[in-house]
């Protein structure tokens, strides 16, 4: 055995070195493969992040001007998916005396939209001036002190019904009560017209047909010249 080792010592050393080199190369290549795989995963992750950031950067925004009874009125940049209620919240929310009865809170915002939130006093005073009540607003025939207020229900109705000529659309545009089609509740919004007189108006037109002119309302029992003078500017046929 000793003789064999001495005789082939040179070859054994070469074989041993070859084995060491082979093992070293194998370990190195395996380690490099793992590192490369991790680098590729990291690169993919970074690319995904960049893609997500690009998607976020392409999100469209618009500018909205909101005034009135909000805590921080001003011009705000908002995502196009937002609605008027989101614009209000961005502007600090409603003040304690705000009234949104005539504001379409669910309406999607648009670029250069102008929104006014009115106070309770402003709505009350305007309703008195126009001789309408919240009963009318329940049908979206709401008063809107400013024709350029993009948030109002009434302005939405005027824009979408500009090509129609029904009596209901006429009421929305003029703010007047049609004595031929109005319900008892709508008639009661007129000055001097209570439940009894409103019922008498409806009973009269059911028996005699539609009024030919607003002056014909004086034919109804209990409605004379004095009451007619109060309501003539607020009624239509």
Describe this entry's structure for a reader.
With about 240 residues, this protein is α/β, with parallel strands linked by helices. The protein has two domains: about 60-175, Roll (Ubiquitin-like (UB roll)); about 175-235, Orthogonal Bundle (DNA polymerase, domain 1). Helices cover about 50% and strands about 10% of the residues. It is built from ten helices and six strands, in the order H-H-E-E-H-E-E-H-H-H-H-E-H-H-H-E. It has helices at about 1-5, 10-55, 85-90, 120-130, 135, 155-160, 165-175, 185, 195-210, 225-230; strands at about 60-70, 75-80, 100, 115-120, 175-180, 235. Strands 2-1-4-3 form a four-stranded mixed beta sheet. Strands 5-6 form a two-stranded parallel ribbon. Strand 1 (about 60-70) and strand 2 (about 75-80) form a beta hairpin. The protein is rod-shaped. The protein starts with a helix and ends with a strand. The relative contact order is 0.07. Residues about 160-175 have low confidence and may be disordered.
């Amino acid at each position: 055995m000793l003789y064999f080792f001495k005789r082939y010592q040179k070859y054994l050393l070469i074989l041993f070195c070859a084995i060491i080199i082979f093992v070293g190369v194998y370990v190195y290549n395996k380690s490099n493969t793992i590192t490369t795989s991790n680098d590729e995963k990291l690169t993919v992750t970074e690319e995904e992040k960049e893609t997500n950031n690009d998607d976020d950067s392409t999100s469209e925004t618009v500018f909205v001007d909101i005034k009135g009874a909000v805590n921080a009125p001003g011009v705000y940049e908002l995502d196009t998916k937002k609605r008027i209620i989101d614009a209000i919240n961005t502007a600090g929310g409603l003040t304690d005396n705000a009234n949104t009865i005539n504001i379409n809170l669910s309406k999607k915002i648009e670029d250069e939209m102008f929104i006014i939130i009115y106070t309770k006093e402003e709505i009350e005073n305007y309703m008195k001036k126009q001789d309408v009540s919240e009963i009318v607003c329940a049908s979206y025939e709401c008063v809107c002190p400013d024709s350029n207020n993009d948030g109002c229900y009434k302005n939405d109705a005027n824009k979408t019904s500009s090509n129609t000529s029904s009596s209901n659309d006429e009421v929305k545009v003029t703010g007047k009560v049609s004595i031929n089609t109005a319900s008892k509740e709508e008639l009661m919004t007129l000055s001097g017209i209570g439940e009894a007189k409103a019922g008498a108006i409806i009973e009269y037109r059911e028996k005699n047909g539609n009024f030919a002119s607003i002056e014909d309302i004086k034919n109804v029992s209990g409605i004379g010249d004095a009451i007619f003078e109060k309501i003539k500017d607020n009624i239509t046929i």
